[in-house]
Amino acid sequence: MTFPVLTSRKILLIVGGGIAAYKALELVRLLKKAGAEVRAVLTEGGAAFVTPLSLAALTGHPVRMGLFLPDEETTMGHIELSRWADLVVVAPATAGLIGKAANGLADDLASTTLLATDKRVLLAPAMNVRMWQHPAVQANVARLQGFGDLHGMAVVGPDDGEMACGEFGPGRMAEPAAILTAIEDLLEDTVAVGQVARPLAGRHAVVTAGPTFEPIDPVRGLTNRSSGKQGYAIAAALAARGATVTLVSGPTGLPAPAGVTRLEVETALQMQAATGAALPADIAVLSAAVADWRVDTVAGGKIKKAPGGPPTLSLIENPDILAGIAAPGPMRPALVIGFAAETTDLEANARAKLSRKGCDWIVGNDVSADVFGADGNTVLLVSAGGAEAWPRLSKTEVASRLADRIAEHFVPKA
Ligand code: CTP
To answer: What is the pTM assigned to this prediction?
Structure first.
């Protein structure tokens, strides 16, 4: 795969102090291979994990480490450095760096650079799972993302998996290839935002994402393995193209994308109500994995084991949110897009869903392979006019393409 968007682009890489710092070296290699120019800032913590010499050798430039070092300041002052870049990438972004940036603190070169830059910033967080899940870190990330078009920071990862500390869960830094894709997308968006005057400005998009959770009793419920990543990426891509975005999200644990209004719901009924209340909208992208059924009577107390054996759950069908939104009427969005998660006969099933649900496009999703929670996705875009197979792309790339298609639908290319 080539990344022409990276040719001659200037990337300032801030390497924070974490075991994932070793992956920053691979990121530099990938960026250089793609034609980018890279300069690195290494924090004191970062230098405990990778050497300035490795970074200097890979970037081909001296590595910056201190704030008030005359030698370093004479080559390129820290303000100049933060302006030199087309994009600033923090990988790994530690809880400490994120906390400083979220609160406007500047007491070393990395944090000063983050405050002084006038460019987009991409964070690749990496930390222990409990640290990542701590409300303080989540609040800091959400705050950084919400600073608006100019100062809002983008986030890639963290991934789920086993951590160096032996615990399991979200916190591992995104793989260098995924960071590279996120960099490419951000640079593309920056170009699109700067030059094309935000093609979806003035449009309202409602996006549903994530699973729903249908309670059985106060401690148990029915849900599914949707991560919400694809829907969140679509919400972010539409917002980057100027749309006003309402994201109706089931439980995901993902931070809200920059500039997006998120309504958090749990059940299908709540999702239906929140989606309906968000109308009118020009665009509806319903990517949520809505549970097909819920129990007809939720037990008020925890259901106990009983000698008679396990309880029988009586299920009733949830409303079809997509079919409801796509039904003809004054509130129907001009463009209604649904998803079809299929393990077999993708095109036939997607087509059947298109007509059964009355939507305009279906993003057919091949879930026979590794999709849930993964960063990649293989989709088929189906409309009344035909079907278009996309190669396997990252979820961010799928979102970018879909958002571009949506923008073209409203403002056809000359
Ligand atoms: N959908 C919805 N409300 C539901 C079920 C699904 O809005 N109660 C939407 C999903 O958000 C998605 C599309 O319908 O955009 C298709 O979802 P999918 O789970 O693939 O289809 P189902 O209708 O559940 O059909 P089946 O389970 O038979 O494949």
So the answer is: 0.60
